[in-house]
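ugh ok fine here u go
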Amino acid sequence: MADPRIEKLARVMVEYSAPVREGDQVVIQGAPVAQPLLLALYRAVLERGGQPSLLTILPGADEVFFRFANDAQLDYVSPVVKMMMETFDVSYHIMSDTNTKGLSTVDSARMARFAQSQRELRETFMRRQATGELRWSVTLFPTEAYAQDAEMSLREYEDFAYGACLLDDPDPVASWRQVSARQQKLVDWLNGKKTLRVTGPHCDLTVGIEGRVFVNADGTKNFPDGEVFTGPQEDVTEGHVEFTYPAIHEGHEVEGIELTFERGRVTKAFAKKGEDFLRKMLDTDEGARVLGEFAIGTNNDIKKFTRNILFDEKLGGTIHMAVGASYPDTGGKNKSAIHWDMICDMRDGGEIAVDGVPFYKSGNFLI
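structure:
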């Protein structure tokens, strides 16, 4: 018997997260294991008058590509993907890995080269989503691989994931609208401010936000969601941060990351595990050492770290920062082939002051 929460998830995505309108061109991407959700989304898009295209992602294909592609193939930009990125109206990506470690031993230099070759696609995506031309949403279908990473049984992980999406509520759309209203008060207060001062056991940072916009991440792109974020001034960030959770990027898990910023750029980088990969990613391009995002997680229904950034960056009581590309709708100008989120726990005495006014302490908002 199908889990009724899957139908709820599909409905929330087409009605709320990235609404489908009559005639919209819609791409739905996911692995075969996610068939129940892929079909539920496919049906929901059809019922709303959209024109859906299903793209199946075969498990293991990325590993084969990175192991056997030559330089010309690493540099190739698919005209099919380019056309979809430039012209489609809605994109749904269903995270549905059956092996989250498949790329963990792939040469990071090859991955960096490929990321650089796809930079134009990322910039097109960033531009179109900022203007509203492209509506998009990323969600997750629970798999054994994700459950293992989270150290849960599959059934426990399903309950965790769907609970974080508020799919156990009678009307999840109404619940997410309430989340949106709560977070909007924070965003309204933050917009127009100039400086964040972030201090605590793991950080001592000054982040410039003058002229930048805070975004209310309320389930309309990532699903689940729960954060407020901005694109900091590119040349202002100063100080030091130790990220308290492993940072995972393209199957590589890097632990104990410490970054030092001077005039907005990472000048020192250290990691207890995976430092070589960290440095190679920071050298991907000119923008990879610049802070592209600063965010505060607000989702208290996500109660533990699970090694999946879709959930982990939303953890209530944490902040996260991304090196690399910023989202243009924040006013951020940094461009890069990468966008790598890293998380820091603030519940043990971390504080944020905004223009000298106490705003946040030990995971709680003070305004």
